[in-house]
TrEMBL record:
Protein species of origin: Rotaria sordida
Record-given protein name: P-type domain-containing protein
P-type domain: residues covered: 1-55
InterPro entries assigned to the protein according to its UniProt record, in alphabetical order: Gal_mutarotase_sf_dom, P_trefoil_CS, P_trefoil_dom, P_trefoil_dom_sf
Transmembrane segments: none
Keyword Disulfide bond part of the UniProt annotation: yes
Gene3D superfamilies to which the protein is assigned, alphabetical: glycosyl hydrolase (family 31), Spasmolytic Protein, domain 1
Organism taxonomic ancestry: Eukaryota, Metazoa, Spiralia, Gnathifera, Rotifera
Keywords assigned: Disulfide bond
Superkingdom as given in the UniProt entry: Eukaryota
A GO molecular-function annotation: catalytic activity
Length: 155
């Protein structure tokens, strides 16, 4: 399905050769041949990606999910590296239910400590009792969907 495509080459200079070097799929839209240059540019902006991840592209999946005092700690792993430099195969995801209105997601390398920007953020030791957001987690591929309860808006 075209709408389910996820852009594998969002940076400038995408070509069939570069796309396929990333082990991705390449397909120009069939309608492009009938468009003027002006419309081709506009069409490209609203079109589905021409270089997109195949359905069997390596993704993260959950290996553990535990409840913590601040919310949840999830460990996700990917079975193989991709074209990305310094690909990290083992990540930890902290879901921190800070307040009724504030939810924080922290993703970090499970094995190697890496530099973190020294920001002053609230230290939450206890999960908020009542929240205005709902958090859903997909197992494979790993995904987090956060929805505002009061409005139904996906955050």
């Amino acid at each position: 399905m075209d709408l389910a495509r996820f852009d594998c080459h969002p940076d400038d200079g995408a070509s069939q050769e570069r796309c396929e070097a990333r082990k991705c799929c390449w397909r120009l839209p069939m309608q492009q041949g009938n468009l003027t240059e002006k419309h081709r540019t506009n069409f490209q902006d609203i079109s589905v990606p021409w270089c997109y991840y195949p359905s069997d592209f390596p993704t993260y999946s959950i290996v553990s999910n535990e409840t913590t005092d601040f919310g949840q700690r999830i460990r996700i792993v990917k079975s193989q590296t991709t074209f990305m430099p310094n690909d990290i195969l083992d990540l930890t995801v902290d879901l921190i239910y800070e307040t009724q209105q504030r939810f924080r997601i922290r993703i970090y390398d499970s094995v190697n400590k890496r530099f973190e920007v020294p920001l002053n953020v609230p230290v939450v030791e206890k999960k908020a009792d009542m929240t205005d957001y709902e958090v859903k987690i997909a197992q494979k591929p790993f995904a987090i969907l956060v929805t505002r309860k009061s409005t139904g808006v996906t955050l």
